Amino acid sequence: MSDRTMIDVAGKTLLVPRLAKRALQTLTAMGLTALLTLAVIVTNSMLTAKGGSASGLSAWLAFIQRPEVIGTMVLTAVVTVIYLHWDKPSSSSSNRR
Fold first, then answer.
1. If you write DSSP's letter for every residue of 21-80 in order, what string do you get?
2. CB neighbours (10 Å) of residue 7?
3. Tens of pLDDT along the chain (97 residues)?
């Protein structure tokens, strides 16, 4: 089994180490989680607080910089990437159908 895998970046296919691909997947999941959290907090702040979106942005920055929040994001992303890698059907088992 090869220790390199394919990844699509900007329409080009690159051959990268598996660990680099998993790290990129983990960082992508963390980034998407942070963006979704930003959208929720800023929207909530615009609807309820007098400070508007600036107040929401400062609340999000205070929230996202907490170590337990970052740790939870990392742990969730790593477990998800590992599970999806583990649950992926191998090429030999897909030939049985």
1. HHHHHHHHHHHHHHHHHHHHHHHHHHHH-SSHHHHHHHHHHHHHTSHHHHHHHHHHHHHH
2. 15
3. 568 888 888 888 989 998 888 898 899 999 999 999 999 999 988 888 677 888 889 999 999 999 999 999 999 999 998 888 888 776 544 544 4
Domain boundaries, the chain: 18-88
CB 18 within 8 A of CB 5: yes
- Secondary structure class of 27 (helix, strand, coil): helix
Comparing C-alpha atoms, which of 63, 60, 82 is closest to residue 72? 63
The C-alpha atoms of residue 42 and residue 23 are separated, in whole angstroms, by 28
Packed helices 52-64 and 67-87: angle between N→C axes, nearest 10 degrees:
70
SS3 call for 51: coil
